Amino acid sequence: MSANSVPVTYAAPPTFLSSDHWKQFQAAFLAQLPLQNIHWKSASRPSIRTIQQLNIKLVPIDSVRDEQTTQIPLTVIERPLLNLYIVVCEDNEAYKNVVRKQIKDWHSSVIQRKGQEWLILYMDRPDTKATAPSFFQVKASVLDKIKADFNVDKRDRCVQIAWSPTFDNPATWVDVITKVKEGLLSAFDASVTQREDEVKRSENQRQMPGWNFCTFFILKESLASSFEGVGLYEDALLQYDELEASFYQVLREKNLSWFGTLISPGPNDDSLPLLSTTKKPYRDLILANTISVFDFRVYLVARQCTLLGRVGKVVEVGRKTIAFLSAFGKRLLEAKETIPLGFVESWIYSSALSVVEQCDHWASELQLEESSVAAFDAIKGELLELARHQLDTLGVQLRYLPLKSPFSTSSFLLPEELSQLVDASDYSVTQPDLLSSLKDKEAFFDLYIKLTNRAIERYAKARRRKFALKLHGSLAALDVHRGRLPTALQTFTSLPAHYAPHEWTSLESLALFEAMATHSRLERAKDTEWIHILLAFLKSYVNSAENELLIQAEDKASYIQTLVDALRYAADELGADLLHTDDDMLTVQIYDKNVETAGTQDGSYLDVVVTNHLPCDMPADEVIVILTGPETEKLRYSAKIDTLMPGNTTLKLFCAMPSSGTHVLDSTEIRIRKLILQQQCRRNSGPTQNARLLKDLPVLVHVPKDLRALSVSARQPDSIELGQPPQLLVSLLTGRNLLSSAKLKLSSSSGAQFDCKSAILHGRDTSTFELQEHSITLKDVDKDAVISFLVPYTEAPAFQALTVIMDVEYTTSSEPDLRRVLRTARLVPTSLPVAVNVQDFFRGSKLFSQFTVSTTSHQFVRIRSAELSVIGDNPDGVEIEGCAGARDSIITVTPVQPGNFLFRLISKHGSVRDPLRLTITYRMLRDEVEVLVKHAIDHMATESQVKPTDVPFLVNAVLSVLEADSSWIEPYVVTDILRVPEIDIPDKLTSRLPMALQEKCREVLEYGWREICIPVDVPRMNIIAAARIRIPSDPFGQAGSQPSKRVPLYAGQPIPAELTITTSFHWGGGNETKDKAYRMRFDVEELIKEWLVGGRKRGEFLAKDGATYTMAITLIALHHGELPLPKVAVTPLPLAGEYAMGSLALPSTETYQMHGAEKILVLPRGGRSTFILDMGTDTAS
Amino acid sequence: MPPQLRLNAVAFISPQNHPILIRPFSQSKDEQLKYHYLAHTSLDVFEERVNSGTKATESYLGLLFSMENAAVYGYITPLKMKIVLALALSDVVVRDADITTIFRALHMAYYHSVANPFLKLHTALDTSGDHSALMLAGSPKWESFRRRVDEIGRAAGAQV
């Protein structure tokens, strides 16, 4: 078929045809071809179709035989669509006489033809124009005349073309080409419309007798071919799709009388290329109504695919052929009596391969996009896989392949047909590859593997991983069948990893199952790898429901049992412990989050539930639960077991460690010989990431405090001396344990270093101990003993608190084999509970120091005494005297009320070089009460009112009540009587306890006190100045006279006064300075509301040790009342030279006002006032 | 009367490609395995179709592929849950409308089953975006979903 070429006839006067001009014209006209972009607007179609390119075949009009000679409908473009007549005539006369008739003859013959158009081409010759320009009018009238003569309807079918040397210039052809296109389109449109009407008419008659599907098909196909001929492939395809639809309708009506048999297999039918439309004379067969359904459908698909291939839709081709091959292949098998054995398989096989080839051929001419390349690869993969499945069927029939999955499931044959044994010679197969491979088993396998690998390769390129995986699985199955076990094992062990991430347990377990089966057939040692496979299999087994597992074992429970047994032996054989994490078949859950203490020994019990998800007993040796606490503290609970029954088993796990507090479940382990199944329970999620699921939240376990267990505590020692290296008091309480040995180690996470070597035993205990560099070892310690050590330490940065981690490893004499480890972390506050401030007052040779003690926390501090003493042998002979009153009673310092302590120092030799020491004896109110309660209850125990073992519980109970209520504090501070609020203790004690507490209050006062020693430096003061303003008792009298009565002073009266300044260098330190003198300045304070000061208010004087400078001033009181005297400020002057005190710095000076407490009574000024009162007039006189 | 379809298997797959329920209507283990494979491989095609760039306004994806004596159809819900149907191959025109009807019914079955508040009994409250609870719908513990699917399967010609 000459595609894309439409015949167009031409006619012209014979003279022109024989001239060179004609050849020139024809060449030029053909140079304009093919026609581009013809827009076809059809009335029956919604959108404009564009014919991209259309070629024209010019034929002389005589060559076309008129009218169709056959009944077979031809395509509409097989006959000319357009007739051209070329007129060359300059002369009006010639036209009238000769040419008009010629045109008329042609015209009359042409317009009779149906569905054809005509066009008259008038050639304008410029050479004649040049010779006779005056003829312009005439020439134009030739064209006009032609138009007038032949244009019968509105359409202008005449066109002019200028004859020029540049004849092949496209610009000169524009009009002509447009007209040609118009003519072609109009003719095409008319023909198509007519043909479509015919088709419609035929379709409507399909229910009438005598209608023939084949005739209808040929008619409709002619339309499709017409579209194809002009390049409208989409429209052509549409026709075929409609044909296919109507075929299916025919099929449904089961009216296949127009066809021959379903199939009449030709000799090579199974191996001919599917997409070839010329391999058989299909049209003739159709016309003869003898075509078989097989041939018909192959032809239909081939035509459709060819058209799809033309428009580049190779993916569609693949999709269509796969659907066709599978669906029709199945149909063919329904009539298997008429078809030779293996025909269908061979046909599908070779067709699929030929389609791949054909599509590749088409695709090589196209530039496929990235996405469609992948789709194309995918569809090729599917085609190849389809071909591969035919090999499966053949192989199973030949017994080259076993009758089981995955080989047996892809066949179209029924299982019983598939299971029939077939000999290779029974097949009538013509595909050469297939033919040779069917005879030879190895060749068959080669072909099988080659084809599968081709499909895998395509899938891999198309990124269809899961398809490829399936094929890999089938290859591994083939390897198993062929006995190539190592490769099969390799494949099967790598496959589960691909199925596991998406929890496709069914496929995962199958691959694992196959891997294990292969492994056992290989008779390899059941090593670590085998255990991993087995555990993965068991995991997927428990994860999938019983009936959903696809493995091929008859009795799953016994199968699992044998596996588990094998696992135990394999685990026994292991060289080293094997850790397997995250296991689902055995889960350990904490049953009760409150742990139970052991009671008779140190340690605690944890109740757990172990769930065995397997259907059989699981041999196991030990169940272990690990809890973590603060500071990497780990508790390991364990229990020895024998087997775990299916379902839940409740176990009590024991941990010998005497730790307490809240712990997090860290991990659980189940030990099976040397295999450890571990379950991590802590998710390593960052703190910002909220736990979204309940199962992600940490499991908290509370381990209660066992008061009778060994415990270790650390606190600040009772006596703290500032300035010395700090010490820590570490106490070990043995509780119920008779220790045979114990090793105490101290460490800190904050960088402090403990010097255990220099530890000092604190208290009177006589147990033997050894001091090492980092640890203290104790031997043979009795029950309920408290052993305390003072351990010095160096603290890297001075924090408020010190983290101490105390590790105690100990063995008791009752259980010498059990080594217990206690790891306790304590935060010991290193800051002092009290703060001390000092204020010094110098008075001549005496010094008064006031110490203010305040609490640094919110707690109350009880202070029994504060003493100031001299360190050493007191060479200066300092006398210190405290305030007498504070001695007896206890002072309670609260956050709002600090305590004050005042001391007087008398130094004989001036300044004191040795430091003093302030010792404060105190205790926290809380500690005091704790001691008191403990003491009282201990006492009750000695009087056998309470069992000794109950003592810790009772103390705890009372203290927790006191902690909860603060109402007892105020009365206790005032009265020293502790009234315990309502408390939950046995009845017989409720009455005794308060009494005991009151009794013991006094006794308790004597111990439990703590000491803090603070070194205090006595301050130095170079100059002490005592200023005094003295008003003599008789300021106005003569000197020397002593009046018996104090003279009254009045406001406004000038009063002579005496200002004396006594300077002392006593506290200046060193005798050598005492001889010196300093220039100093005094300044009387201006009290402008009370006093006017006369005389030298300000002046300088020379200060000497013990000297007194005297000066007279005058004071005038400004108002009456009791007035304090003005103050005097004395400051040293910054003078260099001999007066400087050895340095340029100003000497330190303190001034005190000796008259500071004096007040002068000033009376109002005396005077007389006369008041005259009007006594009234005598009205009677 | 359109020719009777024969439904061979149904698979529900979560947006994270985890299988929720794979229900082959066959007793043979080999056949069941085949449909597990088909459901698994169909994920590749789902991915292809979803990534092909065309705006996925339509849930029904049509025929995914025909392989191993089965025609596999796909459906993806607006929440990206995938439903796969495997029909027995036959040489008749399968109308998309019929398939879509089955898919709608299956989708509704899933929807009704997931609406069961007890599914989320053991999960935290703020897990609206979490599908693990929805995965439970297909677990053997919850019978109703299977029953609904089987009913639809029977209606669509499966031999349950």
TrEMBL record, chain A:
Domain TRAPPC10/Trs130 C-terminal: 1015-1163
Record-annotated DUF7077 domain positions: 708-815
Compartmental location: Golgi apparatus
GO cellular component, one term: cytosol
GO biological process per UniProt: early endosome to Golgi transport; intra-Golgi vesicle-mediated transport
Keyword Cell membrane: no
Transport found in the keyword field: yes
Domain TRAPPC10/Trs130 N-terminal: 18-317
First-listed, main subcellular location of the protein, grouped into a coarse class: Golgi
Entry keywords, A to Z: Golgi apparatus, Transport
Pfam families given in the database record: DUF7077, TRAPPC10, TRAPPC10_1st
InterPro entries found in the cross-reference section: DUF7077, TRAPPC10/Trs130, TRAPPC10/Trs130_C, TRAPPC10/Trs130_N
Protein name per its UniProtKB record: Trafficking protein particle complex subunit 10
UniProtKB/TrEMBL annotation, chain B:
GO biological process terms on file: endoplasmic reticulum to Golgi vesicle-mediated transport
Entry's Gene Ontology cellular component terms: cytoplasm
UniProt similarity note: Belongs to the TRAPP small subunits family. Sedlin subfamily.
Protein name: Trafficking protein particle complex subunit 2-like protein
Signal peptide residues on this chain, from the entry's feature table: none
Coiled-coil features, chain-numbered ranges: none
InterPro entries noted in UniProt: Longin-like_dom_sf (IPR011012), Sedlin (IPR006722), TRAPPC2L (IPR044760)
SUPFAM superfamilies: SNARE-like
